[in-house]
Every structure is written in structure tokens, then in C-alpha cells.
Design brief:
The protein has 559 residues and is an alpha/beta fold. Strand 6, helix 7 and strand 7 form a beta-alpha-beta unit. Among the domains are: 239 residues, Rossmann fold, CATH 3.40.50; 119 residues, no CATH class. The longest helix has 84 residues. It has an 8-stranded mixed beta sheet, sandwiched between helices. Bound molecules: guanosine-5'-triphosphate and magnesium ion. Magnesium ion binds next to helix 3. The site of magnesium ion (MG) has 6 residues, from helix 3.
Length: 559
């Protein structure tokens, strides 16, 4: 992700910090530490001066709301925000993705997709590059696919919500599918909406294929919540439970038998439910499931802090533990190759000269060179200088050949993962620069760079410690955070170290925490009417065709 100039990078960082100051000032220090890390990376040649690790982080927790046409995605978002921000209606309303983010300004603003594409504060930053790679020229029409809206809803502070067009893969052009995939990849939570008016597979074929079957094997599968919306319509059915059961069967046919299933509706849009008992059941269930969904959304702020800090720590560790050792090894391999090539080529040239002299019977004339040298010292020394220059040029040429082969090795080194192109670039700088050929250390790996990296790592550790103290509080000394936050962070903290190997896991574990906490909190409360629901819910996986679900049973999350 190269910004065009150093000045524009500085401008982006400034805007990032200004927005963070408003939204989550605790993370400002992390931006500065990222910039320290950048300095180390510039010296090593891992980053260009126009790049920054800070702009490669997704700074905002992202909630994606995807699903079938008219399933109530926009209505749900309006409810969450407490604002009529998104247009809703029974025809297909949204034809583009809307990225909704917080602004203090009480007048909501709509900005074109290009605003999103050029601003690192937003999650779809530089998406046009991705789309361009996929479709020639399509990125010119980015505004057809994306827009940005701002809202002053407090619920938005600390997160970004993306509303999407109804999902229908057949209808969707490649770019829309591509954006959907990218949104899924970068989201911290994905709400997949279905319409209880059409819970059968035919009506939601593409959604099932892409947003259900396509998600099962993902490492971050736990970030998907499956929501059957508009269930108030089921109240009119003779057998309301059958609506939910039909939906679950459709999901199960795609392989989704365990997961997080919710059933909700928008009371304002719902037709009144006459039967008192039925109404209460619907309301209780809705309230419970809404609370779980909203609880998951609230958790993201904590998860985000761990994710960003974890990424800083992982990048710094990767430089120290992986990249620098790899550069040292690459230099060693390169030097070995060059010396071999030097020996072979220069030795070969000398041998060739000797053989030619022998063939021409001039081998005995070698002694005469000495006499000639004494007689013509100036020409002699010029000849020596010319020979040295030629040998040096041959050596440079061989250095370049050896460097290219080492560079190719680095580029295909799976152990380096996503770092490979940068390491290859840093190595290139080693091979090109005037840094002593025989030196062991890579270019830029100076004592001050090492010290700086140590500082970055200790700042990252301290930041994680601070998060633990704030949210996890293992010693139980401070009691400020809410129970759910605390528990989420405990799990997140415990998994942050492990996240170095599998980053998605920390999110999964952290994300798993809230429902468990909610359940424990409820278990502890003898008056809780939901207690039995949750107990019944422990393993609510549905084999296809089995109708053992009751409308009052939560299909939540304790696995
Ligand atoms: N009965 C009932 N109607 C609802 C509910 N939620 C939304 N609606 C109505 O369903 C229609 C579609 O809602 P939207 O929020 O526009 O749906 P959407 O998923 O954003 O639709 P697209 O953007 O077109 O894909 C609107 O007329 C809403 O008023 C609900 O829970 N119950
Ligand atoms: Mg909509």
C-alpha cells in the first residue's frame, strides 16, 4: 500500500490520529509506536519512505451486515443507531455498500466511495487497487459500489458498520462479489440476515451458497452470526416453530449445523401479535437474541484494541526473529555464491589465458613481461589498473546474478509469509548498496535500530499489559470494567500471545467470551427467565429434518 508521496503519508497519519483522538484516544500511543517501527523498517529497506505499517492496520472494528434482499438489514442498522439513517422499503433498496462511521456532526453526511478509497481511517482503504486487479477499469466507477455515511449516534463510536445490497450472486457483478469477499475478510463481526417470510432454500440459494457454505471452513468462522429476521411474520403461521426449523434445515443442508443462530424482528415494522401468550414469547426471545447480538457488537472495541496492539507486537517480533535472521542468512548465501562465481569465472579466465599461451607456445614469454614492465612502468601500471577494473566489473556482474537468484528464493520463501516481498526488497538494497560486501549485518541493522526495535517491543508489551489491567484485571483489584468486557478481554489477553501464530484465534476466543459470560451471569441470577432457555441451548445443533426446536429456545453459543 504505497501512498504517492511522503507528504500524503504524513497527511494520512495526521488524519488517522485526529480521528482516533475523537474516537479512541487510548490508541494514539500505538500509532506513534507504529511510526517508530516504520523508522526501523525504512533503515532496513523493508518499507519505502512513503509507506507505513500504521496504514496497513484496520483501525476500526468492522461489523458487516449482509444477507438476502429486503430481509431488514437497513432497518436493523437504523435500530442499532437509533437514527433513520438508511432508507428501508419492500423493494430492493440498497444497491451499493454503505460504510457508516461516527462523526460528531449532527447532520449526517454522504460521501462518495472515493473518500473511502483514499483515507486510511476507513476499512476499505485502497479497495480500488483490489478491484482494479480483478476488473480492468472498474475502479473508475467505485462510486457505483460504495458510499460513506456519517452519523453522530453514540452506538457507532468505536466501530464501523457496513450495510450492503441484498445478496444475490447471480445478479451481482464480479466487483460486488469481490467487495463482499473483502468485507468479509476484514470484518470483525459478520451478521448474515435471512428473511423469515422465505425461510426455504430456493429463496436464498445464493446467500446459502456464498455466505453459509463458503464460510464453514474459515478459521474465523466464529465471527459469523446467522440471523433469521422478521420472525414476527411466523406468528401468523399455525406452527410458528416450523419457520425457524425450515430455516435451520436449509442451513444444515449446506453443512452449517453448529454456529450462532438468532431470531429477531423489528417491533416497529411488525404487525401486532394478538395472542398475549404468543406475543410475550416472541418478545422475550427477541430481546434475548438482540441483547446477544448487541453484546457481540459492543465487545469489538476491546477486541480491536488487542488486535491492533497485537499486530504491532507481531510485526516488531517478525522483524527481529524472522526478517533480520533471514536477511543475514540471505547475505551469507549471496556471498558464498558470489565467491564461487568469482572463483569459477576469474579462475576460468586465467586458466583460459594460460591454455591459449600454451597452445601458442608463448608460455616461456611470461618472464619477458617482467622486463617489459620495468621498461614501461606507466603503461604497465595502467594495464594493471585496467585489469583490476575489468575484474571488478566482472565481480559486480556476478554479484548481481547471485543477488537475483537469492532474491527469487526469498520471494518464494513460505516461512516469510506476507513479509516475503518486503524482505526481498530489503535484500536487494543490501546487494546494491556500498555496505561492505563481507559484513555479516544487513544494511540498516545498526545498534540504534536494534535499540529502537527493543523500545517498540517493550511499548507493545506495556500496551497489552495496560489493556489486561483495564479489561482483564486478573488480580481482581480494580472493578471498573463491566463484567462482559472483563471476561472478553481475559480471553483475548490469554490468546494474544497465541495470536502470533494464528491471529484469527484471538478474535475467535475473544468473541466467544461474551455469550458465555452472558450465560454465566444469567446462571447466577435465579430470577432469570432465560436461564432454562440457555441450558436447553447448550448443544442446539440441528440435524436436517429434525424438528426439535422450540421457538423459545435460544440457538446461541455455548459450544
Ligand atoms: N414485519 C416486519 N417487517 C420488517 C422487519 N424488518 C424490516 N421490515 C420491513 O421490511 C422491508 C425491508 O426492510 P429493509 O430494512 O429495507 O431491508 P434490507 O435488507 O435493507 O433491504 P435491501 O437493502 O433492499 O436489501 C421494509 O419495508 C421494512 O419496514 C421486521 O422485523 N418485521
Ligand atoms: Mg437495505
Amino acid at each position: 500500500m504505497t501512498s504517492s508521496t511522503k507528504a500524503s503519508l504524513d497527511e494520512q497519519i495526521k488524519r488517522l490520529m485526529a480521528h482516533l483522538e475523537l474516537e479512541h484516544p487510548q490508541l494514539l500511543g500505538i500509532v506513534q509506536t507504529f511510526r517508530e517501527l516504520d523508522t526501523v523498517a525504512y533503515r532496513l529497506g523493508l518499507l519505502e519512505p512513503t509507506e507505513s505499517y500504521a496504514t496497513q492496520v484496520s483501525w476500526w472494528p468492522l461489523v458487516a451486515v449482509l444477507g438476502t434482499f429486503s430481509s431488514g438489514k437497513s432497518t436493523f442498522i437504523n435500530n442499532v443507531l437509533g437514527r433513520r439513517l438508511q432508507t428501508t422499503g419492500n423493494q430492493a433498496v440498497d444497491d451499493k455498500f454503505t460504510v457508516i462511521c461516527y462523526s460528531r456532526d449532527s447532520t449526517p453526511r454522504v460521501l462518495p466511495g472515493l473518500a473511502l478509497d483514499s483515507d486510511p481511517r476507513f476499512p476499505l482503504y485502497r479497495i480500488s487497487n483490489e478491484i482494479e486487479a480483478e476488473l480492468n477499469g472498474e475502479s473508475q466507477r467505485l462510486d457505483t459500489y460504495l458510499q460513506l455515511k456519517t452519523s453522530d449516534s453514540e452506538q457507532l463510536r468505536g466501530q464501523i458498520i457496513i450495510d450492503s445490497p441484498g445478496f444475490d450472486a447471480d445478479e451481482q457483478r464480479t466487483a460486488t462479489l469481490r467487495i463482499t469477499n473483502q468485507i468479509i475478510d476484514i470484518s470483525d463481526l459478520v451478521l448474515v440476515f435471512f428473511d423469515a417470510r422465505h425461510p426455504e432454500p430456493g429463496a436464498m440459494r445464493d446467500t446459502l451458497e456464498h455466505l453459509v457454505a463458503g464460510t464453514l471452513k474459515r478459521a474465523d468462522f466464529n465471527k459469523f452470526l446467522y440471523i433469521l429476521n422478521q420472525v414476527d411474520n411466523a406468528a401468523r403461521e399455525d406452527n410458528p416453530e416450523e419457520v425457524f426449523a425450515a430455516w435451520q434445515r436449509a442451513l444444515a443442508q449446506k453443512g452449517l449445523t453448529a454456529g450462532r443462530f438468532y431470531q429477531i424482528y423489528d417491533p416497529a415494522s411488525a404487525a401486532p401479535i394478538e395472542n398475549e401468550h404468543l406475543r410475550r414469547r416472541f418478545e422475550t426471545k427477541r430481546e434475548h437474541d438482540m441483547n446477544e447480538i448487541l453484546g457481540r457488537m459492543r465487545q469489538l472495541d476491546v477486541v480491536r484494541s488487542y488486535r491492533v496492539t497485537g499486530q504491532l507486537e507481531r510485526t516488531a517480533e517478525a522483524i527481529r526473529e524472522l526478517i533480520v535472521p533471514r536477511l543475514i542468512a540471505a547475505r551469507r548465501a549471496w556471498k558464498r555464491r558470489v565467491l564461487w562465481l568469482d572463483g569459477l569465472v576469474i579462475g576460468g579466465l586465467i586458466a583460459l589465458a594460460v591454455v591459449l599461451a600454451a597452445i601458442n607456445g608463448r608460455l616461456d614469454d611470461v618472464g619477458a613481461i617482467d622486463d617489459w614492465f620495468r621498461a614501461n612502468p606507466l603503461a604497465g601500471w595502467l594495464g594493471v589498473a585496467a585489469a583490476v577494473v575489468v575484474l571488478w566489473l566482472v565481480h559486480r556482474f556476478l554479484r548481481n546474478i547471485a543477488a537475483r537468484s537469492v532474491q527469487r528464493h526469498i520471494e518464494s520463501d513460505a516461512a516469510l509469509g506476507a513479509h516475503a516481498p518486503r524482505v526481498a526488497r530489503a535484500f536487494k538494497r543490501n546487494a546494491r548498496s556500498w555496505w561492505p560486501f563481507l559484513a555479516k549485518r544487513p544494511v540498516g541493522w545498526t545498534r540504534s535500530a536494534r535499540k529502537r526495535l527493543d523500545r517498540v517491543l517493550s511499548s507493545a508489551h506495556a500496551a497489552i499489559q495496560e489493556l489486561n489491567d483495564r479489561y482483564a484485571d486478573p488480580s481482581g483489584r480494580s472493578r471498573q470494567p463491566e463484567a462482559s468486557h472483563a471476561a472478553a478481554a481475559t480471553t483475548a489477553a490469554a490468546t494474544t500471545a497465541a495470536a502470533a501464530a494464528a491471529p484469527a484465534l484471538s478474535e475467535i476466543d475473544a468473541a466467544q467470551a461474551p455469550p458465555a459470560v452472558a450465560a454465566e451471569a444469567l446462571d447466577a441470577d435465579p430470577d432469570s427467565r432465560l436461564e432454562t432457555d440457555l441450558e436447553a441451548d447448550v448443544d442446539a445443533t440441528v440435524p436436517p429434518g429434525r424438528d426439535e426446536h422450540h421457538f423459545t429456545v435460544s440457538h446461541g453459543t455455548r459450544h
